[in-house]
Design brief:
nine-stranded mixed beta sheet; about 270 residues; alpha/beta; Spore Coat Polysaccharide Biosynthesis Protein SpsA, Chain A; 2 domains; single chain
């Protein structure tokens, strides 16, 4: 049985899914299974995934017959059908460096109190040009820092123990944009440890992600943030610094969506 289950939720990714798959195939650690959950794509994504299924028995495609509207449900489907001890989440447009899994596994194998391991990141545009980096720092209070801002950079950076994912019951399927942030809040609330490899082991493509978010309005993003604040209200009320920061962001989202009264209300609350 595979030690690591790589979960790739995907939708209409014919331009880049093959590149993403190849970065898993190139890993120095080869004891993995890859589960690609296609959220009812309308392009050639399904054909590409099926072609790789035929080439490598470790690759399994799951093809949903109806679009779920976001990555949360496909991610949960993939994890629920996985058999690995560790879960490696990978966005369908991101890339890993070859030793990403191997180096993160060393931490989980040697630190039983750690439930989730991240890494540093290189940011590239659609042409493959490096436009930034994002490096981790040590955190004294991971729950406060996660409430304040999502310091775990993206799903593609992490390797998670499967029992941690199961303990917090996976992604909240009501979330379409901030599902990773909300998930990490529950992980740290339950006391699971965090660590990171201080190396840039994955490549993020925010330009591609932003094109996928075009159908998600500022208003829907604001409503989702409000949902998360309400869901974790007690945690935020106990952490006024993080709460005020999130209220400022919520107010800004309402302003951008031209809901000026709601925006000003939350901006005033943040003072």
């Amino acid at each position: 049985m595979a030690k690591v289950s790589v979960i790739i939720p995907t939708y209409n990714s014919e331009r880049f899914i093959e590149r993403t798959i190849k970065t898993v195939l190139a890993q120095t650690f080869q004891g993995w299974e890859m589960i690609i959950v296609d959220d009812c794509s309308s392009d050639r994504t399904k054909d590409i995934v099926k072609d790789y299924e035929r080439k490598d028995k470790r690759i399994k495609g799951v093809f949903l017959d109806r679009n779920s509207g976001g990555p949360s449900y496909p991610t949960n489907v993939g994890v629920n059908s996985s058999g690995g001890e560790y879960i490696a989440l990978l966005d369908h447009d991101d890339e890993w460096l070859p030793d990403k899994i191997e180096k993160q596994m060393l931490i989980l194998e040697n630190k039983p109190d750690v439930g989730i391991v991240s890494c540093d990141c290189v940011i590239k545009n659609d042409d493959g040009k490096e436009i930034g980096i994002r490096d981790n720092v040590n955190h004294v209070n991971v729950l406060h820092d996660e409430l304040f801002c999502n310091f775990v950079f993206g799903c593609s950076s992490v390797l998670i123990r499967k029992n941690v994912f199961d303990a917090v019951e996976g992604f909240d399927e009501k979330c379409r944009v901030s599902q990773d942030w909300e998930f990490y809040i529950r992980v740290f609330e339950d006391g699971f440890g965090f660590d990171f490899v201080p190396e840039r082991l994955f490549i993020s493509h925010p330009v591609l992600k932003s094109s996928q978010w075009k159908g998600i309005s500022y208003l829907k993003r604001a409503e989702e943030m409000k949902y998360i604040l309400d869901k974790h209200r007690k945690l935020f009320l106990d952490d006024s610094v993080a709460f005020k920061n999130r209220l400022r962001r919520l107010g800004g989202l309402y302003i951008f969506s031209r809901k000026y009264i709601a925006g000003l209300k939350y901006l005033f609350k943040s003072l």
